[in-house]
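Following the same procedure, the fold was encoded as tokens, giving this record:
***
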Amino acid sequence: MNPQLPWWPFGPLFNMAPAQLNQPILPDWSLQHVDVNFAGDADVEKDVVAKVASYGRQLGIITDAVLTLAGDAPEPGADPLQRLRALAAKIRAIKQEHEGTLADQAHDAMERLAKRDPAAARRIAGEFAHNKASEATPA
């Protein structure tokens, strides 16, 4: 507690304020934080933006390629279609990495569930097999 100075006229007013006045100005904000409504995998999106290209850069590459296909002349020395192909290849590689990861995570989760609750693991595996079998049969 801070000692009150008898000659300071506003001393009692400062006792009402909290001792700590620091707070985050932009909570949950960073250079990589982007909220987007999409139907894809959030981890894949995060990796693509962090490792390949930002959303703006992706849109720029796509725009350049589409304009080239529409007949606009690209900038001298630029090959927009090659840039688009390279972007697509990098994104495809990240998606493939995550597909393996997701399958491994699902397998590990089912193993843990089978150890803790074998009946629930059999039920979930049966539900999944039944749903996939009904999707495969034509109506």
